[in-house]
Design a protein that fits this description.
- Two copies of one chain form a homodimer.
- The first copy, chain A, is an alpha/beta fold and 421 residues long.
- Chain A has three domains: 173 residues, 3-Layer(aba) Sandwich (Molybdenum Cofactor Biosythetic Enzyme, Chain A), CATH 3.40.980.10; 78 residues, Alpha-Beta Plaits, CATH 3.30.70.2860; 157 residues, CinA-like (Maf protein), CATH 3.90.950.20.
- Helices cover 41% and strands 25% of the residues of chain A.
- In chain A, the strands form four sheets. In chain A, strands 2-1-3-8-7-6 form a six-stranded mixed β-sheet, with helices on both faces.
- In chain A, helix 2 runs parallel beside helix 6 and helix 9 runs parallel beside helix 14.
- The radius of gyration of chain A is 26 Å and the shape is globular.
- The interface between A and B is large, with 89 and 89 residues.
Chain lengths: 421, 421
């Protein structure tokens, strides 16, 4: 099945926003064995939108659109498609009720424009939006199904997961063509770059029929995708399962999870399984480690809190780091990192504590302690205190993201080491 | 002048690579007062590339392409354009000599495919590649200049800076049309949705000639862009300056800065200007407020640190919140928020402390305290303690992002209130 993707928005054609929706959709289509032939972006100009829709419907068997479903006057997707299919825009009552309920429960007020986003072309098949207010919908244009979603990436993804993926499979399999079934697994890795991981996995597929390997950088992580295609879904799944142990063996400790997993969630599972609690002591990451940990729902089971000790005074006050250590070695030092972790563990009563101290830049570096130098330490479980030094290239935000994720990875490693003792 | 952007590559249409070239080029064009109408990506399929080129040349006055200039058999841009203009692909001798010199200096060997990338369509205007091997070039198709660059972002940018920008200006000004100069300002706002802000700004331009208003959601913020076009750059700048006070008056406290500013940086400037220090006490945001503050280089001047108190025990231990308050009102309450802020201020010695406590969900909500309920409090400057209640719709990460940004906004407001007392 041949598909096209259309994205609408002045902000795209002015270069104010990078269009990540098209590539996300294209990857999802590819996984469904649907080939995306063209991806087109145009402005919020009705004539251009009409032309883009007519062209796409003249070439493809299905068209997926995003953008132009918001509340402002330049959101034209409903109006353009209603006109093209000879219908009127109508208010979708269930979406209106959801909008009214949401606004009533919140501190926002409904203004007239607000209601534009709950309209759909009359007669359209409507797809609920689990992540926002504007519903998705589908109309048929010149015999080709055209599916529309909002341009907000999380809303597009939510509608795709909830409705569009199933609908695309239905269209694909209803076409009568023998289509390959796809089995895939995404391995999430942290701690090595794409070229390092590609080298580690060289030849791992061993010529398995229909199997391919793909890489995607999701900084600071690298995702490895193994895909198997076979007309028989069971055969595809079986071949994927066969490859799994070989891929995992090659990736080793670099791989912490699969699919939509996160490093913080993987660490949370490891802590919860062992009945351990964690505390954090952060200098250069300024709370990012705590932010990552608490992004996981239910993290209160194993995370009670931490200290942000950006200044030396706070390292002394909150963690009991000694003035002598700071004077002799400075705040960015192995000694300080270890005292931070041990101090946090002792004061909080947590089973494990992790600390981060470093030079995030752009200023503050020296020959001895360059920008990018970061010390991490983990105290516990038990009496063990481990520490590790990194020097990363890159900008302030990259160094901080690497430091925060490395802190999580170091705790995971300390738990594994303790378990194997 | 109306332009179109074309990007060629199978990897784009499989979603393996996000197309950042198109948005980069679109932003550059916009700054040259060249309007990009369409951005199209298609696969490395000669028939599709021909169709994309013909369509673009039928609509636009100039076309900029990227991709398909590499050494492999699926790099078809030279062949397709040569055929369309009725020429043969020819080797560009200066580029060949550069390639041979480069290879001689390295351990790589030239294989026949290597030479594909130094070809151009016969008769093309050639643009040197300061960052790589494959030259850019320009041909004229149906009277429309078509400029081609490699798809590697670094090479595309290098050729654009070295040659294409100047060539586009030449085409723009040679067209005989008086081209507008652009003055623009981006206002950064936080605290209200796009539709609310659009309502607040309705009619603010008052029909000023050549002035337009644009909105962009950068969750949890909304950006407002005012653009003025005029053949006379001074007139454009003057009209923008005239509109500035009206726009600011309408936006009021919602607007915290301009351009690439951030709320944390704006707060940092306000603290530094008053010589005040800030500390943070976070429950449901788990360190995100500290993370935002320390994302700003130099934040150590006014931020010493904070406490992450995810559990009740840590609220008592680190901040001295009373057990009685927690028992009577719970952790998500005005009383707790105020004790957190006051406790943090007292213990840290900071001039101002801000606290956040709420129900981020997805679980843990009740009829009385639903998911999305967040209490914020600010202690200081001086003896003042202020607090504010929010109920936000949305998912866990949205509620947390809104809470963290609102904490910064509330401190800014407290500083302003103190200054006006």
């Amino acid at each position: 099945m041949l598909a096209e993707i259309l994205t609408f928005g002045d902000e795209l054609c002015r270069g104010e926003v990078v269009d990540t929706n098209s590539s996300w959709l294209a990857a999802e289509l590819w996984d469904l064995d649907v080939t995306c032939g063209w991806m087109t972006s145009c402005r919020d100009v009705a004539a251009d939108m009409r032309e883009a829709l007519r062209q796409a419907c003249g070439r493809a068997e299905v068209v997926v659109c995003s953008g132009g479903l918001g509340p402002t006057e330049d959101d034209l997707t409903v109006d353009v498609l209603a006109e093209l299919v000879g219908a009127e825009p109508v208010t979708h009552q269930p979406s209106l009720q959801r909008l009214e309920a949401r606004f009533a429960a919140s501190s926002y007020r409904i203004v007239p424009n607000t209601l534009r986003q709950v309209r759909v072309p009359g007669g359209a098949r409507v797809y609920d939006n689990p992540a926002g207010l504007a519903p998705g919908f589908e109309v048929t244009l010149n015999g080709v199904p055209v599916m529309c979603t909002p341009g907000v990436p999380r809303e597009l993804k939510a509608i795709f997961e909830a409705s569009l993926r199933g609908r695309l499979l239905e269209l694909r399999d209803g076409g009568g063509l023998p289509s390959a079934r796809i089995a895939r697994r995404i391995y999430r890795t942290f701690g090595a770059g794409e070229s390092h991981i590609a080298t580690a996995l060289e030849g791992v597929l061993g010529g398995a029929a229909g199997a391919t390997l793909h890489y995607q950088v999701a900084f600071p992580e690298t995702l490895v995708k193994v895909v198997v295609r076979d007309p028989d879904p069971d055969a595809a799944a079986a071949r994927l399962a066969e490859l799994d142990s070989a891929v995992r063996e090659r990736l080793g400790a670099l791989c912490y999870g699969e699919g939509q997993d996160s490093l913080a969630a993987a660490l949370g599972r490891a802590l919860a399984a062992r009945g351990l609690t964690l505390a954090t002591a952060e200098s250069c990451t300024g709370g990012m480690v705590g932010g990552l940990l608490t992004a996981v729902p239910g993290s209160s089971r194993y995370y009670g809190g931490g200290a942000i000790c950006y200044s030396n005074e706070e390292k002394v006050r909150q963690l009991g780091v000694s003035e002598a250590t700071l004077a002799a070695h400075g705040a960015v030092s192995e000694e300080c990192a270890r005292e931070m972790a041990a101090g946090m563990r002792g004061r909080s009563g947590a089973d494990v504590a992790v600390s981060v101290t470093g030079v995030a830049g752009p200023d503050g570096g020296s020959a001895e302690k360059p920008v990018g130098l970061v010390w991490l330490a983990v105290a516990g479980p038990g009496e063990a205190v481990t520490s590790r030094r990194f020097v990363w290239p890159g900008a302030r935000d990259q160094i901080r993201a690497l430091a925060a994720h490395s802190a999580l990875a170091l705790v995971l490693r300390a738990l594994d080491a303790a378990a194997s003792r």
